[in-house]
Request: fold
Amino acid sequence: MPDTFSFRPHDLVPDDARAAICDEVILEKRPAKDADGAEVDGLYNAWIILNNPAQFNSYTTAMVKAVILAFRAASNARDVNAVVFTGVGDKAFCTGGNTREYAEYYAGRPQEYRQYMRLFNDMVSTILTCDKPVICRVNGMRIGGGQEIGMACDFSIAQDLARFGQAGPKHGSAAIGGSTDFLPVMIGAEQAMVSGVLCEPFSAQKALRLGLLTDLVPGLKVDGKYIANPLVETRMITDAWGRLLHGEAKTGDDLAAGKALLKRGQIDLSALDDAVERLCTKLLLTFPDCTTKSVEELRKPKLNAWNANKENSRAWLSLNMMTEANAGFRAFNAGTRETGREVDFVALRRALAAGQIWTPEFIDSLMPGAGEGKDR
Reply:
């Protein structure tokens, strides 16, 4: 065998071209570690990092393109063991599509949004078909499209202050960018309804119980020591039917005390990083082709559901930008803490029941605060 071998490149673009597309997606190769924690010479884990913390790592059109190219590069890299997908900071992994861009550019432009959704679909598909195992490092909120790209990963490890959920019908859309495909497969139809229709969020503890997570670690230190998320009940509680309930939100005085404890503490993600590194090491100590084949087979329930629905979902989401998404994304973008970020749902339903057609004036009338003082 020759001392050196010249590989042919299979990336879509060179590294410098990929990096030039968007500086809000970072691709790093970090040394892999053996079972003793020592760095392994010549082998790496690829970290793909969403870098838009000011907007909770929501992805813009340019970021979606960069994520696709980063996953292709990581998938092709012969010296990469696993891919870690995460976000900058401790507030959010990703909260989905950038609502400012949705409201200010895509709302009312279905053909443009159809092209955007081609990119989004390609991003999900690129995660689902990566030749390396993909770990979602959940450093904070995983909401909306962020939940969808997170569930497309093979493993998820979260810090226990993270929240999980969908925004869909509360903000003018439906969770058909992956969640309606993945959630029934991963957590069952009833809990999928709670998330996808009611948009009720899950604590990280509940997400672990339902099967959305591989592992959960503490993220909050008080007086230098890790403590469990003080806003949720973490003890095992048995209800009247013998079911185990945990990870439910605290209420009343317990919630107030939890919030006070949270303010005293500091978020420290070193336990999360350690857990991610341990999983990467477990993957390192396997036959690579056998691991890839196992991952490909185990992805099939998600991949088959995704492939069956992604194109008609793309078409519906595009047309919806003329009506409910137009109103919902604009309301979220224009709203404030005082006015709220949702449309007047009662006024909307009353008007549609009376035969109202979708006009710019009608959409304006639904914005937060627009109907203040009117008789509902």
About this structure: Residues 300-320 form the longest helix (21 residues).
